[in-house]
Amino acid sequence: MVEFSFHYQARNLDGEAVSGRVEAETRQAALGLLRSRNLFVVKISQARAGKRRLSVPRGRVRVKELAIFCRQFAVMNAAGIHLLQSLHDLREQTTDRLLQKIISEAVVSLEKGKSLTEAFMINSGSLPPIMINMLMAAEASGSLDLTLQRLAENFEKEMQVRGKIQSALAYPVLVAVVALMAVAVLLIYVVPIFVDVFDQVGASLPAATRLLLVLSSILRHYSHLIVLSFALLFVAMKYIQKIRIVFTMRDMLLLRLPGVGSIATGVTISRFAHTLSMLLHSGIPLLESLDIVEKVIGNSIAASEIAEARRQVEVGESIAPAFLKSRVFPRMVTSMIAVGEESGALVDILDKLGSYYDQDVDFGITRLASLLEPVLITVVGLMVGFIALSIYLPLFGLSGSL
């Protein structure tokens, strides 16, 4: 990743004007770093000679590893173990090499006198924005162990949702793979045997049989090209999905697909509610919390609507009206947020919303799994039936002509 230099003008807690230069990977990271130093930024701009150094891209730490790290870190901090000692022990315990490197670099930074937030912000590209910002809030409020517990719970919720979806799809995917393999074996090895029989007896072939023979011929002669095409398509999709219009269309389709759409919507609203509640409960201002939620929500349609809500809040409006014409957040969510804002109990309302949609997602996943199984079995039966019928139709014709 690339680090840049940013010139800034700010005011400290005494109201004095200060200026200088800060190194960070992004403008947002630079702002976060300055805020952690209790500076109110007036102006910030990237320096012309901004490129500083390149580090090897290392991807992101897995959610499972983050959940374990935060949970153990919280326990050790609550037990009164020194920060550096805790990180040394956690580095030795983790088996994830990326997390080990991040902890090692954080230890070095702490030994140089940097804050915990600054120490982890060095690797902000490998950690979720919510973690960096909540650590910053925890240092300001002195509630590190409680914040780490909340982060662990948040990551564990993410793991649970992913695990439920994977478990629900495991059997249908297995059935689909086995069915495709069985059909491929039939087309490559079994159908050609009957082709020779049909040629020898000069049987008249119906349209279904001719189609089957064409499919068999394509699969036998061009199987390597088919496999290569799918492999190239799989690789290309990783890059194509990064194009804004493509991932926007993908997210829109995901929200509208029958069966899947309700689950995707539920997951999005649950993530929004739990994350915003956790951030507000940690003392992070609403504007900053919405900015973080926008980045971690995982759906571009919802992200754009959250960005609009943030703009409304910036000009003094409440959140709820921004979601009135939402394509993701239903009217019930908007009404509950409005009640929460009016009553001053927004955090509690968001917690209840999150719990409600957690249950809704569980029900949706169970229902989808129960629907997919018979549908897949029916599709497999139709495919095998088509192959069998296509093979035996000419034989029935032969027996009738004898």
Task: Kindly identify the CATH topology of the largest domain.
Answer: Receptor-associated Protein
User: Ranges with pLDDT <50 over ≥5 residues?
Assistant: 49-57
The arrangement of helices and strands along the chain is EEHEHHHHHHHHHHHHH
Structural class: mainly alpha
Provide the residue-averaged pLDDT: 83
The assigned CATH architecture of the largest domain is Up-down Bundle
Calculate the terminal CA-CA distance, rounded to whole Å: 77 Å
Going by CATH, the homologous superfamily of the largest domain would be Type II secretion system (T2SS), domain F
- What is the assembly state of the chains in this entry? single chain
Domains counted in the coordinates: how many? 3
Explain what the structure shows.
With 402 residues, this protein is mostly helical. It folds into 3 domains: 4-46; 63-156, Up-down Bundle (Receptor-associated Protein), CATH 1.20.81; 157-402, Receptor-associated Protein (Up-down Bundle), CATH 1.20.81. It has 14 helices and 3 strands. It has helices at 27-36, 63-78, 83-93, 97-111, 116-121, 129-141, 144-201, 207-240, 244-256, 260-281, 286-296, 300-314, 331-343, 346-401, and strands at 4-11, 17-24, 40-46. A 3-stranded antiparallel beta sheet has the order 2-1-3. Helix 7 packs antiparallel against helix 10 and helix 7 packs parallel to helix 14 (346-401). It is elongated. Belongs to the GSP F family. The chain crosses the membrane at residues 169-195, 222-241, 253-273, 375-398. InterPro entries: GspF/PilC, T2SS_GspF/T4SS_PilC_CS, T2SS_GspF_dom, T2SS_GspF_sf. This is Type II secretion system F domain protein. It comes from Syntrophaceticus schinkii.
